[in-house]
Design brief:
4 domains, 25 helices, 8 strands, Fumarate Reductase Iron-sulfur Protein, Chain B, domain 2, single chain, 4-stranded parallel sheet
Length: 423
């Protein structure tokens, strides 16, 4: 596609890659069949191809974007299905990330929306504040269930949380330590489901991997990044990098695939910064996802359950770890049950389930319908956002677990990680 970016724009380490993505697009339309919002809405402006035109015009012109541009760019999930499907290797990620930053810097949203986005960036990135929010949501449950729109979506996510115990700070040490990995606590998962990291620690210990809590690190920065708040995202990244540099580790882990993909992209966030880019690149090279560290182990589980495995978009399209989760489940003796449209986003997408509750809810209903048709005993994923989003609308489709929780149970880690498993 032809563009009219200036030489100065092309030299910018953030805008330049976005312009390259525009130039790579040949408008073939193959991406449209993989785009969840286009599948739902059938509007070209809500397809990757249509959004590329809107983002190109917005970034070329500079200044304040139009309401139409913001509306359709906001409705993008950043699932990156289009990037995986594209025969021209258009790096849509670079373009949509830069577009969101531009909107954040040049567009004035309505006051209520600005407050909500500030709340997500400042409250949801801090587990202590998230826990207070959970408590308030449970106290006001009768009212919360009736709340419309975005506030209702945020509150219902809290009501679906079932935290079990405190967030772990100590992990089992294997008799023979093959790797010593720093584990980041993250933010939302530490409050909503602290038991996940506990299960991860036990599973990896059986494989000779010792986890050590990374003191001083917090949120990975993905939540503010999804909203174009790049200053906030970089501050969280710096905090994680500094914490990691203080110790001697064989790598760094965070146990949500969306967060893992954020860690691995740190170098680009600091592109052009002579101090932070090399430090971020070293950190990103040391970053692992749970699925990369957890080698399959053949065991016989207490029950040979039928498992539906939902591969998060971040796992499929950013981390490129397709098939890894299924291989671990099959080795553990489970029956992996395929379901229709497993490649389509569930609608969680970081902050999307809060900022776009109507579309997010439609995608969730579609996903849960396809999963239910496969009649699994358990639904498993590797991303806290997907888990909580699906749980909030699952109804009778239970239990919904992190991959590590089910593997831990299969490998003799204790009682079943749910209250009422199917017979």
């Amino acid at each position: 596609m032809r563009y009219n970016f200036t030489a100065e724009q092309l030299a910018d380490p953030q805008v330049g890659p976005a312009a390259k993505a525009v130039r790579s697009c040949v408008h073939c339309g193959i991406c449209t069949a993989t785009c969840p919002t286009y599948v739902l809405l059938g509007d070209e402006r809500d397809s990757p191809r249509g959004r590329i035109v809107l983002m190109k015009e917005m970034l070329e012109k500079g200044g304040a974007p139009t309401k139409e541009q913001v509306h359709h760019i906001d409705r993008c999930l950043s699932c990156l299905n289009c990037k995986t499907a594209c025969p021209s290797s258009v790096n849509y990620q670079r373009l949509v990330d830069q577009a969101r930053t531009h909107i954040q810097d040049h567009y004035t949203r309505p006051l209520g929306e600005r407050i909500l986005r500030w709340t997500i960036a400042k409250v949801m990135t801090r587990p202590a504040l998230v826990r207070i929010g959970l408590l308030l949501a449970k106290i006001g449950a009768p009212v919360v269930m009736l709340m419309p729109g975005r506030l209702g979506a945020m509150a219902r996510i809290g009501l679906s949380a079932r935290p079990q115990g405190p967030e772990p700070i100590h992990f089992p040490k294997p008799a023979v330590v093959k790797q010593r990995i720093a584990i980041m606590p993250g933010c939302v998962q530490g409050a909503l489901a602290p038991q996940i990291d506990g299960a991860v620690g036990r599973v990896l210990a059986r494989r000779g991997i010792e986890l050590v809590a990374l003191d001083g690190a917090g949120c990975c920065g993905a939540l503010p990044h999804h909203m174009g708040r790049e200053h906030d995202a970089r501050e969280w990244a710096k905090q994680a990098i500094i914490a990691y540099e203080q110790g001697q580790y064989d790598g760094v882990l965070i146990t949500a695939t969306g967060c893992s993909s954020q860690l691995k992209d740190y170098a680009h966030q600091f592109a052009g910064d002579p101090v932070w880019e090399p430090r971020a690149a070293r950190f990103a090279a040391a970053a692992y996802d749970f699925a990369e560290l957890c080698t399959p182990v053949t065991v016989t589980p207490p029950q040979a359950l039928r498992v539906a495995y939902h591969p998060a978009c971040s796992l499929q399209n950013s981390l490129k770890l397709n098939g890894v989760g299924e291989a671990m489940l099959e080795a553990a003796g489970f029956i992996v049950t395929p379901f229709a449209e497993s490649h389509l986003c569930c609608g969680s997408a970081g902050t999307y389930s809060i900022l776009q509750p109507e579309l997010s809810g439609q995608l969730r209903a579609r996903k849960l319908g396809n999963i239910a048709a496969a009649e699994p005993d358990v639904l498993v994923s590797g991303n806290i956002g997907c888990l909580q989003h699906l749980a909030a609308g699952a109804g009778r489709l239970q239990p919904i677990l992190h991959l590590a929780e089910l593997l831990d149970w299969a490998e003799g880690g204790g009682a079943a990680p749910w209250e009422n498993p199917k017979a």
